[in-house]
Amino acid sequence: MTASAPSGAMSGVGTPSGYNLKQIPNFTPEMMNIYQQLTGAAGPGAQEGLGYLSRLAGGDEGAFADREKSAFTNFDKLTGQLASRFSGVGARDSSAFQNAITGAAGNLAQDLSSQRGEIQENAIDKLMNQINKLMGISPYENVLQPKKNNNSNAMMMDLVGKLLPALIDMFAGTGGAVSAGANVLQSGLGK
Where are the domains of the chain? Predict the structure, then answer.
């Protein structure tokens, strides 16, 4: 008889005496490869991806820097275009120019803040989905198998040793062999 234990139930707990712990794979080799990639055991790429998602979810400035480069590049182009327009009419020192630059900077800040919020929410959702997927899956099922009892072999040999003379007497025709054999049988089983 084998007793099935939930995967992970035996971790940190010793195997009960009289049992051997055996792990039975739940995954095909292909599934195990995918599982290892998700958990990072297959290489640094998966770990880096989850690490990047973690940094995005946590609002790490460095994680956003690459994503925001293009927005800052576009902002620089926009301010250059505004400066050219206002210089062309001699109004680069005007309040209208300052208002245009301030408005563009405000729009940039608002857009980046909004994008950061969306990116963080998406990163958190992706991390939670990965965690939920991994929590419900185990690559192995832990099974307890009873150890083979060597004492049962010794008991069997002892019983055969006690019954053998009685059986020989019974077949040889010696009187009282049946009752003697029954007594030996009962005393052997009573151990």
Answer: 3-145, 150-189
